[in-house]
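Morning run. Coffee first, then this:
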Amino acid sequence: MPICRFSDAEGNPQFAIYEGSRICPLSSLTDTPVTQAEILAGGAKWLAELPKPTESQWQAAPDKLLPPIDTPEKLICIGLNYRDHAIETGSEIPSEPVVFSKFNTALVGHGDEIRLPRVSNEVDYEAELVVVIGKTAKHVSQDDAMNHVYGYTCGHDVSARDWQKGRPAGQWLLGKSFDTFAPVGPCIVTTGELADPSDVRVKMHLNDEVVQNSTTAQLIFDIGELIVHLTKIMTLHPGDLIFTGTPPGVGVARKPPVFLKPGDVCKVEIEGIGTLSNPCVAE
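And here it is:
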């Protein structure tokens, strides 16, 4: 069952089963409050063993949802990981993953605003499949790597190109880490429901136009390879997020370039997960 996070009537964050237009708070299905650590440790099996919600336990999904993971320790991003995107940028196909990061202060949820910074005129969109780590991982093998994945969510790697590439030496961290530059959601789908992420369609809708449309079959480094590579360097902990790269069609590669402006609505649609929607506003 997909799960999401929302604010209840008292403003407290809660986890819920997600079905698009409706949610069922997990608190109505369990005897004690459920923590994020318990959900990640339990995996798909724990969710499957929950009682089936009755009709009275469902409620309308709010317009805004919290990020489905609360303050992850690490937001790791992979650049130039779609073969067709690398080609459109005129870049060489990487021989190993291109890794950068965002700060978790960039996180926002479904329905939240993307604030376009006063100090950037070239804010771009990037639809991405995001991996949610479920188990601590260090020096893992290729055969074992996917056992450390809890599930997947939609992500938007919002990017200020004039900071990422236009500043001295290129400021990837700053260009990617403005507040609100990491929308994720609306839900997490476990590996029990999306067992094979190797060929799922990833789209970005900018207002009424599909501007990105490819599949994860174009990934240069698949999810297992990314986990193997990353855990040679760092320990991945439950709740860490890996943005796996973006398909072709980004605004900076268009002729003329297309950058986000106030009033735009970005929707990341990923097959088997759902749609993450965020409006753009001026800071």
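DSSP finds six helices and 18 strands in the chain. Good start to the day.
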